[in-house]
């Protein structure tokens, strides 16, 4: 029999529990938190925490990028979507209407992007007729060039391009056209199945570095095995995995909802929105062999990598004119970029690229392999069967490749006095700037949408 004192203690405890729920705290539901169970603590290979990035992105970066990327300079992207797949026989393009890309009419492209000479850009970029004719007789320039010399120059240019660039660029020449990204948003098109899986299998199995002591036909490397790889190899995998996770979040956040069974690819006015079941299918531990939450974690790694690249290229971006031919909008774009850069530069815990490829000849060899592997991934984008998916795949891989170029080419490095280490001026082409800012915009949106899915689950 319980003593009177024991009964009093139990009674008090029950009253305390009824008032404050001490003994009955609701247990965290695995169903609620499974997808997000790895989204806490320090980001792998980085010094800051996930919740720091969530707050910084959702409050400061995401709103600024949303207003910036609708500007004409960033909404028009030049791309060649007609290049054949260089690795396997084309298995047929996507025939569904939402895979189709709407190209720009000629009169919709800003004159500054077409290189047309107007009074505005003539004054900015040309010397004026009197300076051209003033010294006509000072010398004669032979403008003829042999076909062989032209071919040699193209080979030299390709060689120089390969030395610095982590991407195969295709915005020049026959087949390259401007696309309005606002008219062709990234969302679920219905493209799936073996064609899509083949692209990602090729990326992971044939181009990502793998742990040397094991072989697996599973394209994804288990998080526990990543520590068997060196820092640079881990970083490569995390960047690719984070990009893949970001794309899967976009497809889940803008899923085709209209029609019977949630899908009507014949509906000309399709309705898109978040689909929680699709998000769970792509990231829940039960359906991804426990790896889905780690893929979400890698999203934060690639976000920090690209954010650091933008901070490192800030001196160049601050000098850019962002010229489209509309003086008012160009000024607004320039001011918006300066505002964004001022916020990014204040972020205290950027990715530290100086820890990678340090010192030895082996490090230089690894950097070369790193670059060639990623260049190959940009070529695989020509094998994507859905034109709209190919468009956004090309843009985001080029954006990531531009970030890698900024971080590791050596041409954007400064010494302690603030001077460029490499005497060659750092340069970025317009398409590289457009892809870099749109790529970080996609990653930023993914982190923002994660919070929406978290609320939906709860």
TrEMBL record:
Protein residues bound to FAD: 187, 189, 200, 241, 244, 282
Signal peptide (from-to): 1-21
Cystine pairings recorded for this chain: 94-99, 386-389
Known cofactor(s): FAD
Compartments where found: Endoplasmic reticulum membrane
Keywords: Disulfide bond, Electron transport, Endoplasmic reticulum, FAD, Flavoprotein, Glycoprotein, Membrane, Oxidoreductase, Redox-active center, Signal, Transport
Flavoprotein keyword on record: yes
Example of a GO cellular component annotation carried by this entry: endoplasmic reticulum membrane
GO biological processes: protein folding in endoplasmic reticulum
Entry's family note: Belongs to the EROs family.
Subunit relationships: May function both as a monomer and a homodimer.
Protein name per its UniProtKB record: Ero1-like protein
Species for this entry: Dendroctonus ponderosae (Mountain pine beetle)
């Amino acid at each position: 029999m319980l003593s009177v004192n024991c009964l009093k203690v139990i009674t008090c405890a029950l009253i305390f529990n009824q008032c404050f729920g001490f003994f009955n705290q609701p247990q965290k539901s695995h169903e609620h938190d499974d997808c997000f169970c790895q989204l806490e603590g320090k980001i792998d290979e980085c010094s800051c925490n996930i919740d720091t990035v969530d707050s910084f992105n959702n409050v400061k970066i995401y709103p600024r990028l949303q207003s910036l990327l609708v500007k004409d300079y960033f909404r028009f992207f030049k791309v060649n979507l007609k290049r054949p797949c260089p690795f396997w026989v084309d298995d047929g393009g996507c025939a569904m209407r939402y895979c189709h890309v709407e190209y720009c009419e000629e009169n919709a492209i800003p004159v500054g992007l077409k290189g047309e000479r107007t009074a505005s850009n003539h004054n900015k970029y040309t010397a004026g007729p009197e300076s051209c004719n003033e010294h006509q007789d000072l010398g004669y320039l032979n403008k003829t060039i042999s076909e062989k010399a032209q071919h040699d120059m193209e080979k030299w240019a390709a060689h120089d391009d390969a030395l610095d660039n982590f991407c195969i660029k295709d915005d020049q020449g026959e087949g390259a056209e401007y696309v309005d990204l606002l008219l062709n948003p990234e969302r679920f098109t219905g493209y799936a199945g073996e064609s899509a899986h083949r692209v990602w299998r090729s990326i992971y199995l044939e181009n990502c570095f793998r742990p040397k002591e094991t072989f697996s036909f599973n394209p994804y490397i288990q998080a526990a095995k990543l520590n068997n790889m060196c820092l640079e190899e881990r970083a490569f995998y995390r960047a690719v995995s984070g990009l893949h996770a970001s794309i899967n979040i976009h497809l889940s956040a803008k899923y085709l909802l209209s029609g019977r069974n949630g899908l009507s690819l014949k509906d000309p006015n399709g309705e898109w929105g978040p689909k929680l079941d699709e998000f769970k299918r792509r990231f829940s531990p039960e359906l991804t062999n426990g790896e889905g939450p780690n893929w979400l974690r890698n999203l934060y790694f690639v976000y920090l990598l690209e954010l650091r690249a933008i901070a490192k290229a800030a001196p160049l971006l601050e000098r850019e004119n962002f010229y489209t031919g509309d003086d008012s909008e160009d000024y607004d774009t320039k001011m918006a970029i300066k505002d964004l850069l001022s916020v990014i530069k204040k972020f205290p815990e950027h990715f530290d690229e100086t820890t990678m490829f340090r010192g030895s000849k082996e490090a230089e060899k690894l950097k070369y392999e790193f670059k060639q592997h990623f260049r190959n991934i940009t070529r695989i984008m020509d094998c994507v069967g859905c034109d709209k998916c190919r468009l956004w795949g090309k843009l985001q891989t080029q954006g990531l490749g531009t970030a890698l170029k900024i971080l590791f080419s050596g041409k954007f490095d400064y010494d302690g006095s603030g001077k460029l280490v490499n005497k060659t001026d750092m340069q970025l082409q317009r398409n590289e700037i457009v892809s870099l800012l749109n790529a970080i915009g996609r990653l930023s949106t993914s982190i923002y949408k994660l919070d929406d899915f978290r609320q939906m689950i709860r």
